[in-house]
């Protein structure tokens, strides 16, 4: 899996992702092509894998700051700290995680 600039997507990478408030930073926690993941909630991983939630061209990211899509409308599901996104020209690589 590669970013739009051709560099390889790796677990732990810090990326910028568009949001209603502008670009927000997040960390890559799961890869769609291999289903590799960081040490994240096992229940979340089981749900993603069991329900085939993540496309092979997508990643799951974890927001580094507060979730930019937070709301208080009871008509909608609560927003967590993870989000899936396609790796396209709008997801920009910022830096690699320390080894």
Describe this structure in words.
- By secondary structure, this protein is mainly beta.
- It has one domain.
- 9% of the residues lie in helices and 31% in strands.
- The chain is built from one helix and five strands.
- The protein has one helix spanning 42-50; strands spanning 14-19, 22-31, 58-63, 82-86, 92-95.
- The protein has a five-stranded antiparallel beta sheet with strand order 4-3-2-1-5, with no helix packed on it.
- The radius of gyration is 13 Å and the shape is globular.
- The two termini are 20 Å apart.
- The model has no long low-confidence stretch (mean pLDDT 90).
Query: For the largest beta sheet, what order do the strands appear in spatially?
Result: 4-3-2-1-5
Q: Characterize the quaternary organization of these chains.
A: single chain
Total number of helices? 1
Structural class by SSE content: mainly beta
Gyration radius from CA atoms, angstroms:
13 Å
User: What is the succession of H and E elements?
Assistant: EEHEEE
Into which percent range does the helicity of residues fall?
under 10%
Give a short summary of the structure.
The protein contains 1 helix and 5 strands. The chain has 99 residues and is mostly beta strands. The protein is globular, with a radius of gyration of 13 Å.
List keywords for this structure.
single chain, 99 residues, mainly beta, five-stranded antiparallel β-sheet
